[in-house]
Design brief:
mainly beta; elongated
Amino acid sequence: MMQDTIGLPACFSSGEKPLDDSTAVTRNGQSIFMSAFRTKIADESRLITITWCKNLLLHGLSISVEGPECETQYTCKVELKPWYFWRKQGSKRFTVEGKLIEIYWDLKNAKFNGQTEPKTDYYVAVVCEEEVVLLLGDLKKDAYRKTGCRPALIDPILVSRKEHIFGKKKFSTRAKFHEKGRLHEVSVECKNRNNSSSANGFDPEMEIRVDGHLVIHVKHLHWKFRGNESINVNKVRVEVYWDVHDWLFSPGLKHALFIFKPVLSSYYASQSTTSISSSPPWSSSTSTTPMSSQTGSSSSLEGFNGGGSSEFCLFLYAWKVE
């Protein structure tokens, strides 16, 4: 199966050791959304990972800053238990290589709408050297007033997003495929078609849709449980990889992995015999682009590296509940 390091933070654990096993998601009944941003902290280009966790008891917010040589991480955790009202607004501090990092948050009026991440009426701010290097949420004026700091000169770049979602047949999320683009509705659905020639009378199929438009349709999923195709979403080429082996052949609660990787349209067009501009808003084609060529670079410009590949990746872990 395609492997990706999940690196789950111990949002609900009293210990400091992170949960690295994907079974922690099901063991703790956790819904997890992780977003990694690249920005400048302590004179270096570093990753800041924002993780929202949710189970039956509480919400958890974790902010991690990459340490030297991409190894050590400095982490701030906030547990949003219902009876800890004071923890819905506050601040914490830690140092990264001698530089003070301050985390400010205000979630007291946050609207979650039943989701793991808040949607409106909140902010989470990361401050270093009197600059707000990362700001999430819609209460931006409140955040700047609370921190008393100016915006950073360098805008953070969203590098990756990892989501763990549960469902029986259909799995949905929302994602941007370009920094200046709009949010798109992405859904994956697994269907069983009647087929008298198959061993059990069913022939599984998979459909991937963007904004309700069918962009990938995989028939005979038993034989095509791993693969990749490229799709076109509003002139942005997106490489889509899937691995649904465990859905089909492993007993119990297992997850499939879907990866969505944008590619710079002008670069893709120069490598293809078909012009991107002549493609419809939603289309797909077979792609043989290897995963190794889709790796992001810290020297990217506006989220795209020199090879034409966007630094952003969406990792969707779809847990199928029988």
